[in-house]
Amino acid sequence: QYRMLQDGTANLREIGGENRKWTWLSFYENLRYAYKDRYLATVSLSFDGSSRVGDNAANTIKAGGVPFGLFYSGGLGWRISSESFLKEAAWIEELKVRVSAGQTGNDDIGESNATRYYNAIKFRETVGLYPATLANEELTYERVTQLNAGVDLGLWGNRFTVSVDAFQSTTNDMLIYTPLEAYFGYGFRPENGGQLVNKGWEISTFARLVNGRNFKWDVQANVSGIQNEITEIKGDKLVVDIPGGQIVNMTGAAANSFYGYIFEGVYSTTEEAQASGLRNNRNFPYGAGDARFKDISGPNGSPDGIINEFDKTSIGNALPEYFGGLNNSFTYKRWNLSAFFQFVSGNEVFNYVRFKNEEMTGLANQSANVLNRWQYEGHQTDVPRALWNDPIGNSNFSTRWIEDGSYLRIKNVSLSYTVPNEFLAFRNAQFYITANNIFTFSRYLGYDPEFGYSQQQVNQGIDYGLTPQPRQFIVGIKLGL
Length: 481
Known about the structure:
By secondary structure, this protein is mainly β. The protein has helices at residues 270-276, 352-358, and strands spanning 4-5, 17-18, 24-35, 39-50, 61-63, 66-79, 92-106, 118-123, 126-131, 142-155, 160-172, 175-179, 188-192, 195-211, 215-232, 237-242, 245-250, 257-260, 263-266, 279-280, 291-293, 306-307, 313-314, 322-332, 335-345, 348-351, 402-404, 407-418, 428-442, 462-463, 472-480. Strand 3 and strand 4 (39-50) form a beta hairpin. It is globular and about 80 Å long.
């Protein structure tokens, strides 16, 4: 049975199709226990089988010839505020500490990477079949081990609350596509290999700063910090080509980091360029007006005077170091004014739009910034000279195109008025004025630092020029019938 069936082709005299179905079978058990609302415990077990993993998947338990993964989680909590020694502290509404640990499995690597299937091929008068993929029958679950510890605190009848969490997530047996040498006949092989560690913390809080009869002021805030690092990877590194550049996964760097050269400016004079002694990977010497790239390494592990693949390194990643938001709400009688701010800090963006508009390699229209390009001996600028087809590689993927994606945005401001019921034929009515995306503070040169081109990890932090979020002003009325 096929989900998709195509017409036969004249050359191969064949009819083909595909079926991307996959199956999942899971047995699970959850147990919860609470003693006098003070001591809390949870335990969960799951026994998962997936058609996506190989028949001989590693670290699994076979049942009926099918490999199953055993996963678990457990947590403990202590509500200290319910203890007798805090009964006199009436101002403490809630005080709880909690810890949890668990392991989950991930099989998201496609439906057919662990099984063999064939494609038709014709060579002259001979028709045959060939393996479409290099299947891996030992392909198994990616395992994510999570540790978490937190504290919940509520004071003065929960007029003030705060939750603090710290976590560490370790991913083992990462599902990756390992590149193969050309003589294999395949571009990659699906494998388990590598370890990824995420560490972070999160604080969320609420406070009613003013609690008068007619006037109230509430503040909600949250902030998170995270660190991401690949601690092991199969092979030296995994490099993925993207339009205009590359993404790398390698030990010591964040997952899906941008991979390119370090741009150090533009050679102002011929003498300065010759003094560097550097050449590009085509053995052309750099001259006045060319980009200055850092010579990091060579075949022997030390700088060799040639700017090539050995000089590429991690030049940033899309994962923010800190992010959060702040919401203020002011209520006076029937009036309410709220304002929400959000921020992101420590992430980098590949400005692909600026790359295409400033590369100066052909006849395409360019941005006004290319008027600042190098044009004469001694010219001080950070924009290289214009060269047809760019034989020197001045527009190569480098830190020149990587920008700070941090921003602070006034996301939403809303003013509303609730009409007294005695003036209404309805149950209730509220008039409101709302403004969205009012203003953004950022050093990013693109249209909008808050964008989402794709859900795919390799496309995070790449600005391909999507329509920016509009500034909106909305006037409305809500009626309750």
